[in-house]
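Non-heme iron oxygenase ferredoxin subunit (Leptospirillum ferriphilum), 102 aa
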Amino acid sequence: MKKLPLELSSPIPEKGGVSIEVGSRSIAVFRVDGKIHAIDNTCPHRGGPLSEGPLDGTVVRCPLHMWSFDVTTGASSNHPGVQIGCYEVVEEGGRHFISVPE
């Protein structure tokens, strides 16, 4: 894993997310109770952008077909066994960093 600065081009909305590109990965970034979480931005069902889905607590719903994922674990909350990438985000010295596979 490599740790990179988390570069956001816009603020994270209260009940939604933003997308960022890290290398060839599209990642959705959310803020829950003051903590930042990051998961794959692409829903495995039909490729919907999870960053554009509504966030309810720690669960984001795909805007296309309502598949749901916990932003703290990447696990689907309505399709057991389905998992998407989940990336650690840490704060150091007032800056946020994301850990992604090399």
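The mean pLDDT is 94. The longest strand covers residues 25-32. ok done for today
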